[in-house]
Write a structure and sequence with these properties.
The chain has helices at residues 10-22, 40-57, 68-74, 92-99, and strands at residues 28-32, 60-64, 78-82, 85-90. The chain has a two-stranded parallel sheet with strand order 1-2. A two-stranded antiparallel sheet has the order 3-4. The protein is globular, with a radius of gyration of 15 Å. The mean pLDDT is 86. The protein is built from four helices and four strands.
């Protein structure tokens, strides 16, 4: 709390920005590559917080990611978008299929 936001690491800045948005308790939380700049511990903490927030609020989280760990940890439903269209829809099995063919 004592540090200026510009003095934070990229991962810290990302976590602070997610916290600021989540504090407003939105019905829909849109996250784009939220795990960029996170080490493994930071990723685990962030995923844990997002899952807890989702369970407490019942909000909808839409996550765009290329991180298989994050996708599997946050996913209830998955959509594979290709050429601007939904090519496939499913659950965690689609995440595994996409990332681990």
């Amino acid at each position: 709390m004592e540090r200026h936001p510009q003095s934070l690491s990229e991962g810290q800045k990302r976590r602070v920005s997610i916290a600021a948005v989540a504090a407003r308790e939105p019905e829909v939380l849109l996250l784009d590559e939220q795990t960029v700049g996170q080490d493994f511990d930071g990723l685990c903490a962030l995923v844990g917080i997002l899952n807890k927030l989702h369970m407490q609020s019942g909000n909808t989280m839409i996550t765009i990611t290329h991180d298989v760990r994050c996708a599997e940890a946050l996913c209830d439903r998955a959509y594979l978008i290709a050429d601007g269209m939904v090519a496939k829809r499913g659950g965690k099995e689609l995440v595994r299929e996409y990332f681990m063919p």
